[in-house]
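Inputs:
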Amino acid sequence: MFIVRFLRFVCGYVRFRVTGVFIERFLNLVSRGGVNLWGGVKTQTQYTGYTLMRHYKKLRPFAKKTGVQMRIEKRFGWPMWKKKYRRRVGLAAGVVVFLGILGLLGNFVWTIDVVGNELVSSDAILDYLAEQGLKVGAFKHSLDARELERKTLLELKELSWIAVNITGSTVTVEVNERVLAPDMYLDDDKACNIVAKYTGQICSMDVYDGQSDLKVGDTVLAGDLIVSGVIEDGKGQTRFVHARADIQAYTDYEIEVQVPMQQEKRVPTGEVVQKKYLKILTWKIPLFWDRDQQVSYDSQQTTVPFAPFGLSTPFALVEETRAYYTTELVTYQEVQAKEEALALLQKQEEAQLQDAEILEKELSVSQKDGIYTLKASYLCKMEIGKEQEILLDR
Amino acid sequence: MKRKEKKSRQSSPQALAKILDVPGNMFDSYSQIVLSGSREAVLDGCQGVVEYEDDFIKLKLGRQMVKFTGKDLQIKCMTGENVIIDGRIFSVEFLE
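Outputs:
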């Protein structure tokens, strides 16, 4: 029924009134004349009904023949709209511009969804796809989905299957993750020695593969051979293996940190301002008049996509929070420099001696040319074995 | 004799339908009336409106006429030989 109403609207229709005695005769003639009437209501000497605009003229001879008077009450449909709004050029232009923009935006990618991933993050997949040209705002027709799939599979080893589906302006990336084989004896085919990473005294040795002439208590220099990957049996035959061992030793270790006595520091002004942007695909349009003279600020941005009723659109609202600061030249006292140096040392210690057991720690400070230097000497127990490939001329 | 011939010619489509055990309108053009409860009647094969009033509508169906009696009766749609009658229908009567 909707389609009938729609067609009537497109063609245009009228509501007309017929007054007279021979209304039945009029209706019979109309019916035989092939003119369709609907929505008819009859009172004693009056009939009101609807017919298509183009059929109305056909009714006049029938009315004349039957002696009834006919009059249009109201016109409906698209032709009436067209006539009513024909002088409103702006409205028509607006509709054309809207349809043009809609058509233009339809050529770009609005949203990218990644589904099927559990271990590999969506960001990792999206970052790689962005490098290959698939990102929000990319021209849809320049994308080669099959090429993207092939390249991504080669690059992201954790994926076993990928499908890039471009539907309208939405790209759905479906992935399947690979079940990776557990790490066992990697590079087992390479013959290796274990050499000392640092100078020290061996305190424990667990040799899993290879041959060692050293024992607990021996001293080694950095680069010395500890476990050999060349094994010679009783018959004088030589065999190459990938030496593996856990060598713990007492070693001396040093970390040095430097802090300039004069530094440029950020001092927050306490002023925090929120700015808003309208984001259309990749373009950001500021929704403010920026008269900011202050240029130094920390910025934090939040993007809220505009998705009415869950439908994705190329529009988003970006809220930027600016925390302003100024830079000042600060001269440190020795105590302040030491505090900062200790904090830096702590960070480096955690990074470099993470697996080591610190037995002794000695600090020494010096100050020269405006630089405060803190030097820490450690005696620690740590793993000193390092694999070194035996280069064979095969 | 002539009258008898005419009678047999008229009844032949019906006779054929009877022999083949199919509905009578397969070989003859009967008018059809479809009633949707007592609120709407759709007529196919209407040859004209004879009388059109608020409480009854009389329509021509070939040699017969059909009279719908009721309340607030209106011809909702007229297209060619099809008519839709809307309203509260109390009775349908066939008149020779």
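Remarks. Chain A touches chain B at residues 23-24, 27-28, 30-32, 34, 36-43, 47 (CB under 8 Å). Helices of chain A lie at 2-11, 23-32, 53-66, 78-84, 89-105, 122-131, 145-155, 334-352.
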